[in-house]
Amino acid sequence: MNLNLNIMNAKKFLTALAFASVVLISGCAKDDFVEINGVCPVVVTTIPTNLATGVPLNQIISATFNDKMNPSTITSSSFFIKQGATLINGVVSYVDTTATFTPSANLSPNTVYTGTVTTMAKNLKGLYMQEDYVWTFTTIPQLLLFSNPIEGGNTSGAGTFVNGATVTAIATPNSGYTFFSWSENGIIIPGAEANYSFIMNGNRSLIANFSAVIPQFTVGLTVNPFNGGTTNGAGAYNSGASVTVSAFPSIGFTFTNWKEDANIVSSNMDYTFTINGDRNLEANFTAVIPQFIVGLTANPLNGGTTNGAGTFNSGASVTVSATPASGFTFTNWKEGANIVSSNMNYTFTLDGNRDLVANFTAIASGFTLNVTAVHGSVTKNPNQLTYNNGDDVILTASPDAGYEFSSWSGDASGTSNPLTITMNADKNVTANFTLIPVVSCTPAVDLGLANGYAILAESGISTTGVTSITGNMGISPQAASFITGFGLILPANGTSSTSSLVTGSVFAADYAEPTPTLLTTTVDNMHTAFTTANGLASTVTEFMAGNLNGQTLVPGVYKWSNGISVTNGITLDGGADDCASWVFQIAGDLTIADGAIITLQNGAHAKNIFWVVAGSGAMLGTTVQFEGNILSKTLISLNTGAKVNGRLLAQTAVTLDASTVVKPQ
Fold first, then answer.
1. Which of 88, 406, 515, 531 is the most exposed place for a label (fewest CB within 10 A)?
2. Those residues with Cβ within 8 angstroms of residue 503's Cβ, 6 or more apart along the chain or in another chain
């Protein structure tokens, strides 16, 4: 029992008695009949009591008077409950001396409510309450538990608990999964095990995170014959892993093949495969006869090329060939200081290692050097129209902004920059540049499968005029017939349809599986994203009272209790951070006036902007240029010529009029 509350209630009761004693003599100010004197009505007890905490969410609220009241004056106007400034829906009744308020829905957890009995209430003698009776109470906190993924396991321990109570949330993984963490508001709770105990101090919403267990398989390796060589790569691997096993022949042996049972599976010493079961492989080796090496060199190096070098069996007939480069002629083959042949094709019987030099002689002439560069430029030093045979030219590649040099191609190769080219023929060289990758960012709001859609709605998608959609469209639970104006083409038993207005696929709840199942999950993800985004802790509240016109907004979570509007335009400045994000929590409507432009600068990207609209809809005027993802509780409407670089995710419908929507990358 709360002693302080009892004392306070007792004080209220004594005050009421004292007051009643006075008015017993003097009468009540608001009597129906002046000649009637009596005790003025007062509230003597309430359920819950004033300042009570831990009140059940299904609590029926009552106020008891010191006298029988006129039932016609006990109404929702004289007896009501509020949460802040919001009236709570419910039914008021009266029996004997007690007025009862039955809420239409359970009370919200961990929330302060205010009860009021006003001076509109009077007793059967016609005497009115002389002052409003007001008291407050706080509901019990609530614990919500969820599983991620849903099929990963189960949770137990959810419910309502008083502040200060020790609560244990339990996560139990399903077969094929393991528990790895609890998280709250997207943040992992450090050290929280599957049985997670904590002291209740307000509402909590916890997610039990599970991960799939990957099966493993064994790779066993043997050698045949046992002294033919060695192997590497045996062991246990996760299912689906890429496995490479290697064979190394001993001296006097060569590798033959890999076998599994009687089947040859590879003739390469390095055998790579994707494992999906146990493998038992045998590396086969063959004893070899003596071999010798033929080595070939060109002189000068840019004078030409040679062919025929390698390792050959003793006694083999070997032919080596020389091909002069442009600007050179073949002279002879030499071994040491001895000329062994003057023919470009030299044939001999191999009985030992040979080191042969193909000699070439330069032909004096002028050569041209043509350089091509896209997304960059190349300088030549010296920069001449023609070059003599053997001249060196230094090429330096410089990339355009946002690109980087990657390689040379054509009559040059490699990645050296600068690069020296020796002129021995006319040459064409290309400098290749690649786009610098964009930094990968963790989204402020996880859209789940809804991330793959440019437009997603539940009750309808319609268009008039020539609309252009880049990205997928989807509707669920309604059927494809609720998508109008797009001229959908659906193949027999198709899982998606096409439209001349859509660069992408169109999905509907009445298409072939797995489309309906995937759309159900996608819509659930959209709802979750809306709830999550709307529940993020705000960094800025009621900015410019919702009139954003002409403002520059830095990254953050913005919250308004009403709607917002943009008349001419706003700027979102990322502060040179490619991962900068904005979440706009809008309790009312989003209204973008005709011709308004949303400008992104300094690293701001449409994919990182989330407009969360809880009012009657998001309305974009004619020729609007809009940036970001709209998550609307209801309608999203685009007027003639409106352009959106983002996603339209509506829990009711999306309407378009010659509009353009491009899903951001």
1. 531
2. 468, 469, 470, 471
Q: Which of 101, 118, 139 is the last residue of a domain?
A: 139
Domain identity same for 86 and 206 = no
Residue 661 CA, chain-centre distance (Å), reads 20
How long, in residues, is the chain?
665
User: Considering only CA atoms, which of 305, 306, 303, 267 is closest in space to residue 284?
Assistant: 267
- The DSSP call for residue 43 is E
Other CB atoms within 10 A of residue 261 CB: 8
* One domain for residues 637 and 494: yes
User: What domain range is 413 assigned to?
Assistant: 366-435
On the question of pLDDT at 390 being above 90, the answer is: no
pLDDT at residue 656 in the model = 98
Q: Which residue, among 436, 438, 400, 404, has the nearest Cα to 578 in the 3D structure?
A: 438
Same domain for 134 and 154, yes or no, is no
Contacts for 315 with CB less than 8 Å, ≥ 6 apart: 349, 350, 351
- At 50 the pLDDT is 97
417 within a domain of the structure (yes/no):
yes
Distance between CA atoms of residues 454 and 629, nearest Å: 9
E-strand stretches of 125-250: 133-139, 142-148, 153-156, 159-160, 166-173, 177-184, 187-188, 195-199, 204-212, 216-224, 229-232, 235-238, 242-249
The torsion angles phi and psi of 22, rounded to 5 degrees, stand at -65, -50
- pLDDT of 36: 41
Whether pTM exceeds 0.70: no
Tokens of 237: 């691997």
Considering the domain architecture, whether residues 126 and 260 belong to the same structural domain is answered as no
Identify residue 23 by its one-letter amino acid code.
Answer: V
Instruction: Evaluate whether residue 70 is within a structural domain.
Output: yes
Residue 566 sits in the same domain as residue 611: yes
Question: Of 424, 417, 420, 407, which is closest to residue 324 (Cα–Cα)?
Answer: 424
* CA terminus-to-terminus distance, the chain: 60
Q: How far apart are CA 339 and CA 333, in angstroms?
A: 6
Pairing of strands 177-184, 159-160: unpaired
How does residue 13 score in pLDDT terms, banded at 50, 70 and 90?
very low
Residue with tokens 């790895």: 180
Long-range CB contacts (< 8 A, 24+ apart) of 310-317? 312/350, 313/289, 313/350, 314/289, 314/290, 314/350, 314/351, 315/349, 315/350, 315/351, 316/349, 316/350, 317/347, 317/348, 317/349, 317/350
Q: How far is CA 595 from CA 119, 205, 638, 643, in A?
A: 54, 42, 12, 10
Q: Alpha-carbon distance 160 to 141, whole Å?
A: 6
pLDDT of res. 438: 65
The least confident of 28-42, 90-104, 321-335, 525-539 is: 28-42
- Strand positions, DSSP E, 270-353: 270-274, 279-287, 291-299, 304-307, 310-313, 317-324, 328-335, 338-341, 345-349
**Quick one: DSSP state of residue 403?**
E
Q: Are 247 and 259 in contact (CB under 8 A)?
A: no
CA dist 266 → 235, 238, 248, 272 (Å) = 19, 22, 14, 9
The closest alpha carbon to 88, from 75, 116, 107, belongs to 107
